[in-house]
Amino acid sequence: MLAGRDLKLRYRGAFLGALWAVLQPLAMLALYTFVFSIVLRVKMGSDASPHTFALYLMAGMLPWLAISEALARSVSAIVDNANLVKKVVFPLEVLPVVPVVSALAAQAIGTALLLAALLALGRSLHVTALLLPVLVVPQVLMTVGLAWLAGSFGVFVRDLGQFIGLALTTWMFLTPIFYAPEAVPTAFRAVFDLNPLVALIDAHRSVLLEGALPDARSLGILTLASAGVFGLGLAWFRRSKPLFADVL
Hints:
Order of helices and strands: HHHHHHHHHHH
Number of strands: 0
Structural class: mainly alpha
Mean pLDDT: 87
Shape: globular
Largest sheet: none
Distance between the termini: 25 Å
Strand content: under 5%
Number of helices: 11
Protein backbone atom coordinates (compact mmCIF):
# COMPACT_ATOMS: atom_id res chain seq x y z
CA MET A 1 0.00 0.00 0.00
CA LEU A 2 2.79 2.42 0.87
CA ALA A 3 4.65 1.59 -2.34
CA GLY A 4 1.51 2.20 -4.41
CA ARG A 5 0.98 5.52 -2.62
CA ASP A 6 4.61 6.41 -3.21
CA LEU A 7 4.30 5.78 -6.95
CA LYS A 8 1.18 7.93 -7.18
CA LEU A 9 2.72 10.83 -5.26
CA ARG A 10 5.88 10.80 -7.35
CA TYR A 11 4.01 11.57 -10.57
CA ARG A 12 1.03 13.47 -9.19
CA GLY A 13 0.56 16.73 -11.06
CA ALA A 14 3.00 15.81 -13.82
CA PHE A 15 1.66 16.35 -17.34
CA LEU A 16 2.73 12.89 -18.50
CA GLY A 17 2.14 11.26 -15.13
CA ALA A 18 3.43 7.71 -14.64
CA LEU A 19 4.57 7.69 -18.28
CA TRP A 20 7.79 9.24 -16.99
CA ALA A 21 8.64 5.86 -15.46
CA VAL A 22 9.01 4.60 -19.03
CA LEU A 23 10.22 7.69 -20.89
CA GLN A 24 13.12 8.53 -18.59
CA PRO A 25 14.85 5.11 -18.80
CA LEU A 26 14.26 5.00 -22.56
CA ALA A 27 15.85 8.43 -22.98
CA MET A 28 18.87 7.30 -20.94
CA LEU A 29 19.07 4.11 -23.01
CA ALA A 30 19.08 6.07 -26.27
CA LEU A 31 21.75 8.48 -25.01
CA TYR A 32 24.07 5.78 -23.67
CA THR A 33 23.66 3.71 -26.84
CA PHE A 34 24.62 6.67 -28.99
CA VAL A 35 27.67 7.58 -26.88
CA PHE A 36 29.06 4.11 -26.18
CA SER A 37 28.01 2.16 -29.27
CA ILE A 38 28.11 4.73 -32.07
CA VAL A 39 30.67 7.27 -30.84
CA LEU A 40 33.02 5.08 -28.77
CA ARG A 41 32.20 1.87 -30.71
CA VAL A 42 31.97 -0.34 -27.64
CA LYS A 43 30.93 -3.88 -28.56
CA MET A 44 28.74 -6.23 -26.54
CA GLY A 45 27.12 -9.46 -27.58
CA SER A 46 27.58 -11.33 -30.84
CA ASP A 47 27.91 -8.31 -33.12
CA ALA A 48 28.75 -4.62 -33.03
CA SER A 49 25.34 -3.29 -34.08
CA PRO A 50 23.73 -0.53 -32.00
CA HIS A 51 20.61 -2.72 -31.64
CA THR A 52 22.54 -5.51 -29.95
CA PHE A 53 24.37 -3.04 -27.74
CA ALA A 54 21.07 -1.44 -26.72
CA LEU A 55 19.62 -4.82 -25.72
CA TYR A 56 22.65 -5.74 -23.61
CA LEU A 57 22.73 -2.25 -22.13
CA MET A 58 19.05 -2.40 -21.20
CA ALA A 59 19.41 -5.85 -19.64
CA GLY A 60 22.22 -4.48 -17.48
CA MET A 61 20.49 -1.21 -16.66
CA LEU A 62 17.28 -2.78 -15.37
CA PRO A 63 18.68 -4.24 -12.12
CA TRP A 64 21.09 -1.34 -11.70
CA LEU A 65 18.39 1.34 -11.95
CA ALA A 66 16.22 -0.54 -9.45
CA ILE A 67 19.08 -0.81 -6.95
CA SER A 68 20.45 2.71 -7.37
CA GLU A 69 17.04 4.39 -7.22
CA ALA A 70 16.07 2.46 -4.10
CA LEU A 71 19.32 3.31 -2.30
CA ALA A 72 19.25 6.97 -3.29
CA ARG A 73 15.73 7.39 -1.93
CA SER A 74 16.10 5.18 1.14
CA VAL A 75 18.64 7.58 2.69
CA SER A 76 15.85 10.02 3.58
CA ALA A 77 13.13 7.42 4.19
CA ILE A 78 13.15 7.87 7.97
CA VAL A 79 13.81 11.63 7.99
CA ASP A 80 10.97 12.29 5.54
CA ASN A 81 8.56 10.38 7.77
CA ALA A 82 9.55 11.90 11.11
CA ASN A 83 5.88 12.11 12.13
CA LEU A 84 5.63 8.33 12.08
CA VAL A 85 8.79 8.02 14.15
CA LYS A 86 7.70 10.46 16.86
CA LYS A 87 3.96 10.06 17.23
CA VAL A 88 2.78 6.73 15.87
CA VAL A 89 3.48 3.12 16.81
CA PHE A 90 4.66 1.99 13.41
CA PRO A 91 7.04 -0.71 12.11
CA LEU A 92 9.77 1.64 10.94
CA GLU A 93 11.56 -1.22 9.16
CA VAL A 94 8.94 -0.83 6.42
CA LEU A 95 9.91 2.72 5.43
CA PRO A 96 13.27 2.01 3.71
CA VAL A 97 11.66 -0.98 1.95
CA VAL A 98 9.04 1.21 0.24
CA PRO A 99 11.43 2.69 -2.37
CA VAL A 100 12.79 -0.81 -3.00
CA VAL A 101 9.31 -2.07 -3.91
CA SER A 102 8.60 1.04 -6.01
CA ALA A 103 11.83 0.52 -7.94
CA LEU A 104 10.95 -3.13 -8.54
CA ALA A 105 7.69 -2.03 -10.15
CA ALA A 106 9.64 0.17 -12.55
CA GLN A 107 12.02 -2.72 -13.25
CA ALA A 108 9.08 -4.96 -14.11
CA ILE A 109 7.85 -2.40 -16.64
CA GLY A 110 11.33 -2.12 -18.11
CA THR A 111 11.62 -5.90 -18.42
CA ALA A 112 8.33 -6.01 -20.32
CA LEU A 113 9.68 -3.34 -22.69
CA LEU A 114 12.89 -5.33 -23.19
CA LEU A 115 10.94 -8.46 -24.09
CA ALA A 116 8.82 -6.42 -26.49
CA ALA A 117 12.00 -4.99 -28.07
CA LEU A 118 13.35 -8.52 -28.57
CA LEU A 119 10.22 -9.47 -30.47
CA ALA A 120 10.25 -6.24 -32.50
CA LEU A 121 13.86 -6.90 -33.56
CA GLY A 122 13.08 -10.49 -34.56
CA ARG A 123 14.95 -12.04 -31.61
CA SER A 124 13.80 -15.13 -29.76
CA LEU A 125 12.24 -15.12 -26.32
CA HIS A 126 14.16 -17.75 -24.39
CA VAL A 127 12.50 -20.05 -21.88
CA THR A 128 15.33 -19.17 -19.47
CA ALA A 129 13.61 -15.80 -18.98
CA LEU A 130 11.31 -17.64 -16.58
CA LEU A 131 14.27 -17.71 -14.17
CA LEU A 132 14.08 -13.93 -13.64
CA PRO A 133 12.20 -14.28 -10.31
CA VAL A 134 15.14 -16.37 -9.06
CA LEU A 135 17.52 -13.51 -9.89
CA VAL A 136 15.30 -11.00 -8.11
CA VAL A 137 15.75 -12.82 -4.79
CA PRO A 138 19.42 -11.91 -4.17
CA GLN A 139 18.81 -8.47 -5.67
CA VAL A 140 16.02 -7.72 -3.19
CA LEU A 141 17.92 -9.16 -0.23
CA MET A 142 20.96 -7.01 -0.99
CA THR A 143 18.97 -3.86 -1.77
CA VAL A 144 16.77 -4.08 1.33
CA GLY A 145 19.79 -4.71 3.56
CA LEU A 146 21.62 -1.70 2.12
CA ALA A 147 18.42 0.39 2.30
CA TRP A 148 18.11 -0.32 6.04
CA LEU A 149 21.73 0.73 6.54
CA ALA A 150 21.31 3.87 4.42
CA GLY A 151 18.01 4.83 6.05
CA SER A 152 19.45 4.41 9.54
CA PHE A 153 22.71 6.27 8.91
CA GLY A 154 20.75 8.97 7.06
CA VAL A 155 19.13 9.94 10.36
CA PHE A 156 22.46 10.63 12.03
CA VAL A 157 24.53 11.83 9.05
CA ARG A 158 22.41 14.29 7.10
CA ASP A 159 24.91 14.78 4.26
CA LEU A 160 24.91 11.04 3.55
CA GLY A 161 22.69 11.68 0.53
CA GLN A 162 25.48 13.57 -1.25
CA PHE A 163 27.94 10.78 -0.50
CA ILE A 164 25.49 8.11 -1.71
CA GLY A 165 25.08 10.00 -4.99
CA LEU A 166 28.84 10.01 -5.57
CA ALA A 167 29.19 6.38 -4.48
CA LEU A 168 26.41 5.25 -6.82
CA THR A 169 27.98 7.05 -9.79
CA THR A 170 31.32 5.38 -9.06
CA TRP A 171 29.66 1.99 -8.58
CA MET A 172 27.83 2.36 -11.91
CA PHE A 173 31.02 2.87 -13.93
CA LEU A 174 32.77 0.03 -12.08
CA THR A 175 29.95 -2.30 -13.10
CA PRO A 176 29.79 -3.88 -16.60
CA ILE A 177 26.70 -2.00 -17.70
CA PHE A 178 28.21 -0.03 -20.59
CA TYR A 179 30.89 -2.56 -21.47
CA ALA A 180 31.47 -6.30 -21.44
CA PRO A 181 33.26 -7.85 -18.43
CA GLU A 182 35.93 -9.13 -20.82
CA ALA A 183 36.99 -5.53 -21.47
CA VAL A 184 38.37 -5.19 -17.92
CA PRO A 185 42.19 -5.50 -17.90
CA THR A 186 43.47 -8.72 -16.36
CA ALA A 187 45.36 -6.81 -13.65
CA PHE A 188 42.07 -5.48 -12.25
CA ARG A 189 39.93 -8.58 -12.81
CA ALA A 190 40.29 -9.97 -9.25
CA VAL A 191 39.10 -6.70 -7.69
CA PHE A 192 36.44 -6.27 -10.35
CA ASP A 193 34.92 -9.67 -9.57
CA LEU A 194 34.28 -8.58 -5.97
CA ASN A 195 31.53 -6.32 -7.28
CA PRO A 196 28.28 -8.22 -6.55
CA LEU A 197 26.52 -6.62 -9.50
CA VAL A 198 28.87 -8.33 -11.95
CA ALA A 199 27.25 -11.70 -11.28
CA LEU A 200 23.74 -10.20 -11.16
CA ILE A 201 23.97 -8.37 -14.47
CA ASP A 202 25.71 -11.27 -16.18
CA ALA A 203 22.87 -13.55 -15.01
CA HIS A 204 20.23 -11.15 -16.39
CA ARG A 205 21.91 -11.05 -19.79
CA SER A 206 22.32 -14.82 -19.84
CA VAL A 207 18.67 -15.67 -19.21
CA LEU A 208 17.13 -12.83 -21.22
CA LEU A 209 19.41 -12.48 -24.25
CA GLU A 210 21.50 -15.61 -24.57
CA GLY A 211 19.12 -18.34 -23.51
CA ALA A 212 21.75 -19.69 -21.14
CA LEU A 213 21.57 -20.65 -17.50
CA PRO A 214 23.30 -18.27 -15.09
CA ASP A 215 26.52 -19.40 -13.48
CA ALA A 216 25.34 -21.40 -10.47
CA ARG A 217 28.46 -20.79 -8.39
CA SER A 218 28.43 -17.02 -8.87
CA LEU A 219 24.70 -16.83 -8.24
CA GLY A 220 25.03 -18.95 -5.10
CA ILE A 221 27.82 -16.75 -3.71
CA LEU A 222 25.78 -13.64 -4.54
CA THR A 223 22.72 -15.02 -2.75
CA LEU A 224 24.69 -15.90 0.38
CA ALA A 225 26.39 -12.50 0.42
CA SER A 226 23.06 -10.76 -0.13
CA ALA A 227 21.50 -12.70 2.74
CA GLY A 228 24.41 -11.56 4.92
CA VAL A 229 23.85 -7.92 3.94
CA PHE A 230 20.13 -8.35 4.63
CA GLY A 231 20.80 -9.70 8.12
CA LEU A 232 23.40 -7.04 8.90
CA GLY A 233 21.10 -4.24 7.73
CA LEU A 234 18.17 -5.50 9.78
CA ALA A 235 20.28 -5.97 12.92
CA TRP A 236 21.77 -2.49 12.67
CA PHE A 237 18.43 -0.85 11.91
CA ARG A 238 16.74 -2.44 14.91
CA ARG A 239 19.65 -1.52 17.15
CA SER A 240 19.66 2.13 16.08
CA LYS A 241 15.87 2.54 15.82
CA PRO A 242 15.32 3.58 19.48
CA LEU A 243 17.56 6.63 18.89
CA PHE A 244 15.64 7.98 15.89
CA ALA A 245 13.06 9.97 17.85
CA ASP A 246 15.74 11.74 19.91
CA VAL A 247 17.70 12.81 16.84
CA LEU A 248 14.68 13.85 14.77
